């Protein structure tokens, strides 16, 4: 089943707002920033489905127009159910000049025998700011399912003026490559990746990296680090034992970066 979500966010003289939206079942988009003190757009993607099923194909298209700022949120943990075949997701984000797009979704819970293939392509113009994250759990740990999914593959690409500047490729196949082996996740059960990329020269990247390292040092029972990119930005990698801890950490990082003076 093909499920479609198209969002366009624009900025007028006063604020960023949802200009256009088109969704098919099970998606729904609602505004959630009514009580925010700023003039940016805050939207939540909701779903009437309990999770992603075998044969599902999600097609997400997001356009953030010139000088608009969008912070997108998810409704709840994303469950990947037991599958006979596979499920796929395609996400494309178009960022016009001076725009910002931040998306820190809830953790993904891949159930036993699930196969999920995802690809995200982000196109950035000048003076843009991007933050996206992903947290992958081991599965339904409290039901005895630890790395019993079949395959999880996510390809993430960022383009600046049609030139590829960042590529992150995660492929997990625990039945072929045990993830708790030495040199992989070892005793950790959850992993998270947060990517921050900007196309402006004014960004104080070293100072931001120091602040994020301070946030990482405050956390207990995790292993994490920050890698600065060759262009303006960095990647945060974290290993842990619980999805909620990593999700809260990434929300705190998002809050820090969202409030950088433009």
TrEMBL record:
Pfam families: UreD (PF01774). Its main location: cytoplasm. GO terms for cellular component: cytoplasm. Keywords: Chaperone, Cytoplasm, Nickel insertion. One of its GO terms (molecular function) is nickel cation binding. The keyword Cytoplasm applies. It comes from the Bacteria. It is found in: Cytoplasm. Belongs to the UreD family. PANTHER family: UREASE ACCESSORY PROTEIN D. UreD, UreF and UreG form a complex that acts as a GTP-hydrolysis-dependent molecular chaperone, activating the urease apoprotein by helping to assemble the nickel containing metallocenter of UreC. The UreE protein probably delivers the nickel. Required for maturation of urease via the functional incorporation of the urease nickel metallocenter. This is Urease accessory protein UreD. It comes from Niabella soli DSM 19437. The gene is ureD.
